[in-house]
Design a protein that fits this description.
The structure is a single chain. It is built from 14 helices and 8 strands. The protein is of the alpha/beta class. It is globular, with a radius of gyration of 20 Å. The termini are far apart.
Length: 328
């Protein structure tokens, strides 16, 4: 009976993927749970039951599958029409070895390149967040080109027009490194949410920091908060939580505390603009307060109010501040 239950659960759980209507980036905070629709609640209950039952039979397998789900972007929606500015860009690609959590094979990242009429010799890379895509940063392209910057914007692995099954900080960082190697050098970096924390990790080991500028918009200051919200969302018990952490550490060779934006950016000596909204429910502002009070002088903070996690990077006043920072 034990092995029958084990095999049944494994066969029916190993390919768990979020459905099109379950966007984990929006539901990792308990305060948003009330906004879920009926279909979302049903599927979420299905996942919770799966992890609870499998956790009784094989906690390591439950932890592994929970980690895989955490790293799985939800299925892509119907293709969005490209904004006009993207028709003016040059389509470019980068080949990345491996396919996320699977080291075998490769995947193709699709992106765009724009060249200014009057180049200033600087190149900007824009890194979007989880469950997002390059098109959402259309407002950034014209002012960057006007400034004289060459602009690169890619869809992350498993997002938008790019291939891939999984996404996390490690996968995203490897993708950005591949972009730099093939289309760099990069002078300025702009990132939102998952893209921002990934850039913070990148900055930690970047040579010649004074030659670069980083704009971090709503990064996950404390990844432990993100994981805690995920545990609560999935109703994972302590045994499965432990297995989840063990799986993460086996995959990354680092403790959870390593993947925190404040830890990664603290020793970076180049110019940084950190933007965060006080009403951010995905990457809470309260996680930033302690670091903000002790951060080195090279890190400048722009605190907004009432914009939340996503409106903050789309607001024109914020975009203007970013352009002023890069132009200074």
């Amino acid at each position: 009976m034990f092995w029958f239950l084990y095999n049944f659960l494994y066969r029916n759980t190993k390919k768990i993927k979020p459905p099109p209507y379950l966007d984990l980036s929006l539901y990792l905070n308990n305060g948003i749970m009330a906004k879920q629709g009926f279909s979302e609640r049903i599927y979420l209950q299905y996942l919770r039951t799966k992890f609870k039952t499998l956790g009784l039979v094989s906690p390591p397998l439950a932890g592994k599958l929970a980690f895989q789900l955490f790293c799985t972007p939800y299925p892509k929606y119907k293709k969005r029409k490209a904004p006009a500015i993207f028709h003016q860009g040059k389509k470019i690609q980068v080949k990345v070895n491996g396919n996320g959590l699977d080291p075998i094979g490769s995947s193709i990242l699709n992106g765009f390149e724009w060249n200014p009429n009057k180049p200033n010799g600087k190149t900007v890379l824009i890194a979007h967040g989880y469950a997002s895509f390059a098109y959402k940063f259309e407002q950034y392209i014209p002012p960057l080109l006007k400034m004289g910057c060459r602009v690169l914007c890619f869809d992350a692995p498993g997002h938008g027009l790019s291939q891939g099954k999984y996404i996390n900080i490690v996968i995203y960082q490897e993708a950005i490194q591949a972009i730099i190697e093939e289309h760099g050098p990069i002078d300025y970096f702009i990132g939102h949410s998952l893209g921002a924390i990934t850039l913070a990790m990148l900055a930690e080991n970047l040579a010649n920091p004074m030659n670069h500028k980083f704009v971090l918009i709503a990064p996950a200051t404390k990844t432990t908060t993100t994981f805690s919200n995920y545990y609560a969302l999935m109703h994972l018990n302590e045994t499965v939580k432990t297995a989840f952490i063990e799986e993460l550490q086996k995959y990354t060779h680092h403790p959870v505390s390593f993947f925190e934006a404040d830890r990664a950016i603290e020793k970076y000596t180049g110019p940084v603009l950190w933007i965060h909204d006080q009403d951010d429910m995905v990457c809470p502002y309260k996680d930033l307060i302690e670091f903000k009070n002790k951060a080195p002088e090279n890190i400048k903070f722009l605190t907004t109010n009432g914009l939340g996690h996503n409106k903050v990077y789309k607001t024109q006043e914020v975009i203007d501040k970013i352009m002023a920072f890069l132009a200074s």
